[in-house]
Write a structure and sequence with these properties.
Blueprint (H helix, E strand, L loop, with lengths): L1 H20 L11 H12 L3 H4 L19 H13 L11 H8 L4 H11 L15 H7 L1 H7 L19 H13 L8 H10 L5 H12 L3
The chain binds heme C (2 copies).
Length: about 220
């Protein structure tokens, strides 16, 4: 799905660019994607220092990959960081995002920056990480129902694409969901994931399943 989504969104943006260039009369009333992407690119300069110029993620800043992720999911996370449903003082790494997300002036800016991220190609596979991908593969069976057999995500279930996400980030999120640091009140999708993470016995299992997830595309 992530693979499909990328060329599609790029293609849709290209189509709109063509429509705008042709002076399409309707483009005055309806918001067009093209100027949003341009504004989003400008907003993204405030993100690149942590998430990388190509949205590839940067472990040194604990910031995950954003390129290749579904726009709906990214938008929801930014809205949650803005409202404080995600992050906060108990979330050692997530708290860095609250100020950054709030620095976007309004939801239009959220949509703009997400539209720009949607133009960035999915980065290459990351190293598998410290866990044991073979036992992780067995554990992943319980995840596939929502996230898909290749971790491609399922928009109907609001489950994001996780295939190819860095194992250090995935392991951290699983622990956060299980501890209730993520998936708090007001976060319906996160609460579902919290229940799923509770099925994993310990942080060693988090690392194993994360190592397997990192090998998926
Ligand atoms: C100071 C570093 C920093 C900056 C600047 C920053 N981020 Fe982040 N971002 C992070 C960290 C760290 C996380 C991981 C939080 C966690 O572990 O839960 C994150 C997480 C996210 C997530 C959640 C990803 C997911 O898979 O759930 C999104 C979306 C995001 N950032 C978007 C942005 C955008 C857009 C900007 C610019 C407006 C931005 N970030 C600027 C550090 C940063
Ligand atoms: C009942 C459906 C369901 C199951 C089963 C499930 N998930 Fe999720 N998962 C979700 C939803 C929905 C979200 C989005 C939460 C949000 O919006 O914050 C999510 C989010 C995540 C995230 C956060 C991604 C990010 O970029 O921050 C990770 C990692 C994850 N799931 C991994 C797993 C793993 C590993 C398993 C199996 C052990 C699993 N999930 C099982 C529904 C599920």
């Amino acid at each position: 799905m992530a693979r499909l989504l990328r060329p599609l969104s790029g293609f849709a943006a290209a189509l709109l660019l063509v429509a705008v260039a042709a002076g399409c009369a309707a483009s005055r009333e309806a918001p067009t994607i093209a100027p949003e992407v341009a504004r989003g690119k400008a907003w993204y300069t405030t993100c690149a220092g942590c998430h990388g110029n190509a949205g590839e993620g940067f472990r040194g800043m604990n910031a995950p990959r954003l390129a290749g992720q579904s726009p709906d999911y990214l938008t929801r996370q930014l809205v949650h960081f803005r409202s404080g449903v995600r992050g906060g003082a108990a979330d050692f790494y997530g708290v860095a995002m609250n100020g950054r997300a709030k620095a976007l002036p309004d939801e239009q800016a959220v949509h703009d920056v997400v539209a720009y991220i949607a133009t960035l190609p999915a980065p290459p596979l990351a190293p598998a990480g410290e866990g044991d991908a073979t036992s992780g593969r067995a554990l992943f069976e319980s995840c596939a129902a929502c996230h898909g057999a290749r971790g491609e995500g399922n928009p109907t279930l609001q489950a994001p694409a996780i295939g190819g996400l860095d194992s250090w980030y995935v392991a951290r999120q699983l622990a956060n969901f299980r501890k209730g640091i993520r998936g708090r009140e007001g976060d319906a999708e996160g609460e579902q994931m919290r229940a799923a993470a509770a099925l994993l016995p310990d942080e060693a299992a988090d690392r194993d399943v994360a190592a397997y997830v990192a090998t998926l595309r």
